[in-house]
Every structure is written in C-alpha cells, then in structure tokens.
Design goal:
It is a single chain. With 255 residues, the protein is α+β, with helices and mostly antiparallel strands. The protein has two domains: 3-103, no CATH class; 107-255, DNA polymerase, domain 1 (Orthogonal Bundle). 45% of the residues lie in helices and 14% in strands. The protein contains nine helices and six strands; from the N terminus they run E-E-E-E-E-E-H-H-H-H-H-H-H-H-H. The strands form two sheets. A four-stranded antiparallel beta sheet has the order 1-2-3-4, covered by helices on one side. Strand 3 (23-32) and strand 4 form a beta hairpin. Helix 1 crosses helix 2 and helix 4 (133-154) packs across helix 7 (191-210).
Length: 255
C-alpha cells in the first residue's frame, strides 16, 4: 500500500533482492518532499506471494501471511501516527526523524559525550601523550571504519553508547567482511585485522565503563576470534643474505 498526503508524505512497502534465496526481505520506505529513507521490517516473503501493485502480501487460504500483514499494518500505523503528530502541531519533520522515532534511535546532541564516535575522539585525545603515534593512528583507522559502518547500517553520523549491544558488534564484524573491497581496495582486511579493530573498540569501551558512561559491557557475549598462525624461522642462509645486504638508504642500512 502507498500512502500520500498533500504535504508530499509517502509511505510504502517493497521487496528487496536476497542473493538468490527464495524468501525476500520486506522493506519500508518513507518519503517527505523527495527526502527518502528505507528500513527493514524484519519480515520475509516469497516473491510469488507479494502484490507489488498494493505493496502488500497476497491474501491466501489458511490464514497464510496474516502475521506478516498484521506486522506491516502495525508499522504503517505507527509511522502515520508519528507523522500526524507533527502535521497537526504544524512542526517540520524529516523522513530520517520519522524512521528514527519508530526504530527508537535517539539523536545525538552536539554536547553529548556519550556516543560511539565521540568516545573515540575522547580516547584519542586522552591517549595522545601516552600512546606512540604508530599505535594511536590505528585507533584513528578503527574510528573511521566504525563511522562508515554506522553511516551505512544506521544511516546516522553517530549513535548513543546506550544502544551498543551484541547485534551492533556482530554487525560490524559482518560489515567488515562484506565490505572489505569497498573500504580499502588496495588493503582488504583479513580476519585478524578485523579482530584487532574490534579489540581496539573494546579498549575504548572499557574507558567509557571506567568513566561510568555505560551501565553494562556490550562485549559480555562477544568474543573476538583470532586465527593463530605459526611463523617460519629464517634459515642461516637467509640471515646471512640480510647481513651482507647493502642498502642505498642510510636509514635502512642503520636498521
């Protein structure tokens, strides 16, 4: 079903591709004045049972799809109810704000330190004179990856620390594995590199816990899985070649 008002508010459901699988995910789309956002309804259906004209599951015998219909009606009702509150109060509202209200995502105030990216910024400032630059720059890289993950998965610049949970952490791991080429085509992350980023994030979280910015540890149920590799030793001949090697760069020769 597609809903439209005189104020250019549109709401609809549609199916998304699912990499060749039989069941396809149902997504909701909110549009206000050409500003469009989408989010998953957490419902799945076979394409043959979907009415693309109405944007709804087909009514089938045996009450099949009734639970899906009820869920979609509830989502639509909640979104429309929130929109009407703004409309009747004559207050402006964006598609992103309606989506976030439905999903329970809070906006981050500029002066609110209790958020993921601001925690990274606080950590990096606090550790500037403690950590070597070689170590500190890795935290900046980890921060960049988490920022990209939040933007792609949550469509926001930042999220509150209170919303951190196992799903957020496992989602970041999946994002890093699925988006390796897009993140850094020349240097894709392997398993241990991804775990190192998660390990650095855990250290920043520990800082938040010590400062009492978090009531619970979101890492309680999450365990990084490193792949241990046995390193080969250099042979006597290889060590001899290194010893005899003459470097043209003085710095390398000194090393």
């Amino acid at each position: 079903m597609i809903m439209k008002t005189k104020n250019n508010f549109h709401f609809s459901f549609y199916l998304k591709p699912n990499r060749g699988k039989t069941l396809r995910p149902i997504y909701a789309r909110i549009t206000i004045n050409s500003d469009k956002v989408e989010f998953s309804t957490k419902q799945y259906i076979e394409e043959s049972e979907w009415d693309s004209t109405k944007g709804r599951p087909k009514k089938l015998s045996g009450c099949k799809n009734d639970d899906i219909l009820y869920s979609l009606d509830s989502i639509q009702g909640a979104i429309l109810n929130d929109y009407n509150k703004f409309f009747l109060a004559q207050k402006p509202v964006t598609s992103e704000e309606l989506k976030n209200r439905f999903l329970g995502i809070k906006e981050i105030a500029d002066d609110d330190p209790y958020s993921v990216i601001k925690l990274f910024e606080y950590h990096n400032t606090e550790m500037k004179n403690t950590l070597e630059w070689g170590t500190l720059k890795n935290y900046y890289t980890t921060q960049k990856y988490f920022q990209a993950y939040i933007k792609k998965e949550y469509h926001k610049k930042d999220i509150p620390l209170c919303e951190l949970n196992y799903r957020f952490l496992s989602g970041f791991e999946r994002y890093m594995r699925d988006e390796q080429t897009a993140i850094d085509p020349e240097r894709p992350c392997n398993n241990n590199t991804i775990m190192k980023h998660i390990e650095r994030f855990r250290k920043t979280i520990n800082l938040a816990i010590r400062n009492e910015w978090l009531d619970k540890d979101p890492f309680v149920k999450f365990q990084p899985k490193f792949i241990h590799k046995d390193r080969d030793f250099l042979t006597k001949e290889e060590l001899q070649r290194i010893e005899n090697k003459k470097f043209t760069i003085p710095r390398l020769q000194h090393v």
